[in-house]
Amino acid sequence: MGNFLSGLLGGRQHKDEGLGLYKSWVGGQSRDLTVATEVEAGAAPHLLERKVDSRKAVEAAKRPLWQKRPPFYKEARERARQGDPRLEEISINVRILEQSLAEIQKADKTAKKELFKPLTDAEENEVYGCFTGGPSSKVLVLHEPSNIEITKEKFQCLRPRCWLNDEVINMYLELLKERETREPKKFLKCHFFNTFFYKKLAKNGYDYKSVKRWTTRRKLGYELIDCDKIFVPVHKDVHWCLAIINMKENTFQYLDSLGGMDHNVTNILAQYITEEVKEKSSKAIDARLWREEIVDIPLQQNGWDCGMFMLKYIDFHSRGLSLDFSQVNMEYFRMRTAKEILRLRAD
Length: 347
Prior knowledge:
Layout: H1 4-8, H2 19-26, H3 54-62, H4 72-83, H5 87-115, H6 121-131, E1 139-143, E2 148-151, H7 152-155, H8 166-182, E3 190-192, H9 197-201, H10 217-220, E4 229-236, E5 239-246, E6 251-255, H11 263-281, E7 291-293, H12 306-318, H13 330-343
Parallel strand pairs: 3-4, 6-7
Antiparallel strand pairs: 1-2, 4-5, 5-6
Helix pairs in contact: 6-13
């Protein structure tokens, strides 16, 4: 399916990168980012005569137009502290929180720097070499624990302007699982369902029995109730979306890089996690009462990067980071993902 969209565009370079055609297929409603402004007619302007003290005017002219001032809350705290010594303890707590926030922000910047680390020349040459030449049936990598193999033909979907396939997506999700196991203190405890899970669960409306054995403690080594977040890829004909079950905050998120929303997906997953926790953990919860969280997310600006957006949603969320990327980063992310798959290691 790789260059199918490009073929329909007849090789022409469209201004919207095929996004309009792609949206018509998906049928999703992207967010309307147009802001309309209305200028209301007002009363005719009139002039007011004002007497000005020339000395004050001179003094005002000497002062800088802008002066840096401490935050308002600090001034208010200082005034209050003079009248109430008990606020000294509160002040100490505030300083501790400010220091903690600074450390978190520093760690956040370090993590994001790692996320955009450029490939070396050798790594780029290796990826390009796998994109070109040789038989398409050649197996480039085999992930033995999952028995997923990536042939040269399957690998081509990581080239620009191509749709990602199940094999590449599922391989990458396996690498994210191993990354978390390798560095548990650096990443959230997550479960990564593959691309076939939701299809099977939602078949004929809802079918828990068909996926009941996917998550036994013997198979996973843990129960889903122990996780911070659970990622569920959702494929809609020609479009990838992502559902997230946040087990710690008791919320659901539905992330669609076209800006759409599907409440049916979150309703099915609410029913699933309620039944799953009762069956595997012997605990009674009602996830149908959980909040559906609506958040702003980066959106695709073409007709072929939905799969890569979905993988990066998962990658950033599994690190506990905000989704600080955009369409301009997708070509880099494709190359980085290709490199990590060839090395069988997600960084």
